[in-house]
Design brief:
single chain, alpha+beta, 2 domains, three-stranded antiparallel sheet, 34% strand, Flagellar basal-body rod protein FlgG, Flagellar_basal_body_rod_CS
């Protein structure tokens, strides 16, 4: 009976956490460069049940009782949310006409799990990576993100554009009054190993762009979120139904436990 409580409760908890991930995806369906979170479920290890008994062996002294175990079957003890990982697939590219908007479009990548990122610097001075190219120019003439983080060049320095009048080539060169600044585009051979932070930022190990990698930087465009809103809504409804089913099972166990306490206790 108590194992049933645990199994039903674990199902409810895992579905609740999946709903949180799906809700976050829906909330960011219009966020440029957002990568949808994917969840994976895993069952707890199964337990093999045995019935403990005894067997009598005839002896000259009248018999010998030996303990024996007869297998009954396996018992699954529930499910849990194993991990949440971003889907680093390319989002659709939409033209905005804003010169400070940049879209990073993947071409040929050497690794199936690899991805390219813009390099930025957060408020603490730490390097972070993003696919959100919704940039602007601050009051001092530096290219920054919508959160005010500096966009870095390939040398790790902030980019001075001295205003909105600048051009970005397809290979990522910012051409401004102060000179040409190659954007700090970095490559992660396994983007799944990066840690997702808020504001569309990632942290982790990246490196130089490998030979043979192709990409384009499109000025005046933005990469959209790769969230499939219709599919996500369907998944949310399915998760809600599974949660309600586990809830009904838990209620049934609770009612049976109540009868066991009140009715069976009276028979004693």
């Amino acid at each position: 009976m108590l194992r049933g409580f645990h199994t039903a409760a674990s199902g409810m908890i895992s579905q609740q956490r999946q709903q949180e991930a799906l809700s976050n995806n829906i909330a960011n369906a219009e966020t440029p460069g957002y990568k949808a979170d994917q969840t994976t479920m895993r069952a707890f290890p199964e337990m093999l049940l045995h019935k403990i008994g005894s067997s009598t062996i005839p002896t000259s002294n009248g018999g010998l009782n030996l303990p024996v175990q007869d297998p009954i079957g396996s018992l699954n003890t529930g499910v849990y949310l194993q991990e949440t990982m971003p889907n680093h697939g390319q989002g659709d590219v939409r033209e905005t006409g804003n010169a400070t908007d940049l879209a990073l479009v993947n071409g040929e990548l050497p690794d199936e799990t690899g991805n390219l990122f813009f390099t930025v610097q957060n408020e603490d001075g730490d390097v972070r990576y993003t696919r959100n190219g919704n940039f602007t120019v601050d009051g001092e003439g530096f290219l920054v993100t919508d959160e005010g983080y500096y966009v870095l060049d390939e040398m790790g320095d902030s980019i001075q554009t001295n205003g909105m009048e600048f051009t970005v080539t397809e290979d990522g060169i910012v051409q401004a009054e102060g000179g040409d600044f190659p954007l700090g585009i970095t490559y992660a051979p396994d983007a799944n190993e990066l840690t997702k932070e808020g504001n569309g930022l990632f942290t982790g190990d990246t490196g130089a762009i490998p030979v043979g990698t192709t990409f384009q930087v499109q000025q005046g465009s933005l990469e959209q979120s790769n969230v499939n809103a219709q599919q996500t809504m369907t998944q949310m409804m399915q998760s809600h139904r599974i949660f309600e089913t586990n809830q009904r099972v838990l209620r049934a166990y609770d009612e049976n436990m109540g009868k066991a306490v009140s009715e069976i206790g009276q028979l004693g």
